[in-house]
Amino acid sequence: MAALNIVLYEPEIPENTGNIGRTCVATGTRLHLIEPLGFRLTEKAIRRAGMDYWKDLDVTTYMNYEEFLEKNPDAKIYMASTKAPNVYTDVTYEPDCYIMFGKESAGIPEEILVEHPDTAIRIPMKEEIRSLNLANSVSIVLYEALRQTSFEQMQLQGQLRNQSFFFQLSINNNLFII
User: Fold this and answer.
1) What residues contact residue 173 under an 8 Å CB cut-off, 6+ apart?
2) Cβ–Cβ < 8 Å for 37, 18
3) What is 5-177's CATH topology?
């Protein structure tokens, strides 16, 4: 089974990366971290945000963007940025694509974005807002990509622990409770 990939370009805030790591574990998504990081992966903050899921995370770190490209030569990369020309819901995500997000303070460098005009995507927001929180942005775009790939191998229905859902069905004016 192909897996989606989230790429964080030089992330700065450990709590964001921890939350993103937890989301990646919950969705079967790989996480790629491009250094330099604004924290150490051993920090309590990243473990606290990722809770006990961090040990289950499929995570790879790279010394820089060039090493990331060398190790993933055929990667289809979507670049999420407030500066991008395309809305994130207007593209078609492949089951094994990479979705890159920039560092919290500056985003993805424009020198990188300009090389990817067709795959540069944005989340619409009001003009006076600079950006959304990184972890929230990852979740928004990742779940759109998952929706487009039919939430493959994900649990689609929840189950109550102490109660049962009842459904009413009407057939020929007869009411049935299921």
Assistant:
1) none
2) no
3) Alpha/beta knot (3.40.1280)
pLDDT band at 61 (very low <50, low <70, confident <90, very high): very high
Q: Which of 112, 135, 111 is nearest to 123 (CA)?
A: 135
Q: Is the pLDDT of residue 156 over 90?
A: no
- Tokens of residue 98, six digits: 């990479």
Residue type, 47: R
Q: How confident is the model at residue 164, as a pLDDT?
A: 75
CA distances 150 to 21, 88, 94, 97, 147, Å, are: 21, 17, 11, 15, 5
> What does the block give as tokens for 158?
């929840």
Transcribe 36-77 into DSSP letters: PPSS-TT-HHHHHHHGGGGGG--EEEESSHHHHHHHSTT--E
- CA-to-CA distance for 154 and 177, rounded, in angstroms? 28
DSSP alpha helix (H) spans, 11-162? 14-27, 44-50, 65-71, 110-113, 134-148
